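seq as requested:
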Amino acid sequence: MLTERSKELVKGDAPLYLFGAVFALLTIIISGFSDYRLWATVAIWVYGIGFIFAVGLTFLRNRSLRFHLRVALAIFIFIGALIVPLTTEVVHRAHGTSQSYVQPEVWVVENAGKRVINGKSPYVSPPRKNGQSLLSTPAPLPVYSYFDYLPLMSIFGTLRSTDEPKALTDARIPFSIVGIGAIVLSLFLLRKNKEACLKVGIVTAVLPTAALPLVTGGDDLPVIGIMLLAATLMMRKKPVLGAVALGLACGLKFTAWPLAAMLILVAKRKDGRSYKMPTLVVFLGVLFSSLVPAILDNPFGFITDAIRFPLGLAGTKSPAQSPMPGHLLIDTFPNWHFEIILGLIALSLLLAVLWIKFFPIVSIERALLGSGVLMLIATVLAPSTRVGYIVYPVECFAWAWLVWKSDPDNFSSIDKLHVDEEFLLTKT
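struct tokens:
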């Protein structure tokens, strides 16, 4: 039997900070990236101090004071594990010639931003022969020439073409402002359950799941932040604002699309009535306003960069080479590349349909759970993937728990089953 203090320790923040410290230690030992190790050498001390203090706070009996000290500790760790390493790496990059203080996706986005500022398409078109179809195999380009994002992502790179000091034009700065800002706003909107908000805030903005990707690259954090803001607005019965946020997130990266589809299914007005069609119209309006001009301007570049390259069909191997089943399968049978991709897409769709059939999307938390599961499947089966994409399902699962905790009256599938049973009993 666990004592009360042991229960407090297990339920508190200490296990989260211990995870952070262990993760940082493993990063120092295993990682081959200098920017990862630089982050880890700072973060391991910060998470370690956080763990010690979090254990100490369990001995404090005044719950109100303990909660406020936990918030202060989370802010300290946020600054130490994210802001300080990020500032260090940005300054090192600004004052040196080495690109070892940044992951390639940062300067891929910055180069796209420069092209947009100069009146060009963010996408680079490989050379085409006269009469060559848009769907024909393109000539290979250097691996980091491809802009494998959707058009709105290029906005984060536009600062790099200004005359401001280099340390202020690093794409990771707007990544941080938008991503963390959206998460903080979402937590503020769900502030009714302060305990749950603190826990989820630690998971989404303080632990290595957020800190490491943002310090070294960070292109996924604004996508995740806006996705979670959209889910929060939908929960607050603000479907139009939620649709705008979804359109912006989906204009950044394809990874936001599964959640968008599921949230639109459960969009409701304040009176509880379904609001699917107006939400869908607003969402498509926002998405197409960024997507269509970029596609019409450079259709071959869009197809090559945003679709072919991530699937490994652009003639150049993607650097996203984590040893997941989908990637290993294509590596084993390279001559069947296209057929394997079609099979993996079909399998992913089948698993998605089965999930929705057995776990219907009837609430916001179910949409978040379903999206998390789909992103997990996609991360495992994608031909070109990174282990870091696991941050998407982690954040979706954490936010689903927060939504459930913040709104116990939310109409979950368990509640639906209970109501159906009562309905049947009354009829019989």
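Residues 410-428 have pLDDT under 50 and may be disordered.
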